[in-house]
């Protein structure tokens, strides 16, 4: 059975191919925004995007997971490829409370 990291890297390679299609004539077709939902759902945070934007979002999260280092993270904020950002998001790699870090390392899923 392949290690989780190997499978993640294969998925990333496939998504990178899709991401490359988001550049046409030197212009990006990527659209991604993070917005607070309007009332009455104002507690919601919405991540909206076209296909290219959502593929980018997924790829960045998978790349963070594939880094395999606890604490690895990616920022989605006004300084990244996001059109609108009402609230910055940081996605972090963290062990679940029930996971034993030594078991996770043995499976090749996390490098500390």
Describe this protein's structure.
The strands form 3 sheets. The chain has a 3-stranded mixed sheet with strand order 4-3-6. It has a two-stranded antiparallel sheet with strand order 1-2. It is built from 3 helices and 7 strands. It has one domain (4-106). Helix 1 (4-20) runs antiparallel to helix 2 (51-67). The chain has helices at residues 4-20, 51-67, 101-106; strands at residues 23-24, 27-28, 32-36, 45-49, 73-76, 84-85, 89-92. By secondary structure, the protein is of the alpha+beta class. A hairpin with a 2-residue loop joins strand 1 (23-24) and strand 2. Helices cover 36% and strands 21% of the residues. The model has no long low-confidence stretch (mean pLDDT 84).
**Number of E strands:** 7
Mean pLDDT: 84
Q: Which structural class do the helices and strands define?
A: alpha+beta
Number of domains: 1
Helical amount among residues, as a percent range? 25-40%
Listing every helix as H and every strand as E from the N terminus to the C terminus, the arrangement reads: HEEEEHEEEH
Low-pLDDT windows of residues? none
- CA-atom Rg in angstroms: 16 Å
Strand content is: 15-25%
Largest sheet: 3 strands, mixed
Tell me the number of helical segments per DSSP (H or I, 4 or more residues long).
3
Distance between the amino and carboxyl termini: 22 Å
The geometry reads as: flat
The order of strands across the largest sheet is: 4-3-6
Which features would summarize this protein structure in a list?
112 residues, alpha+beta, 3-stranded mixed sheet, two-stranded antiparallel sheet, 3 helices, 36% helix
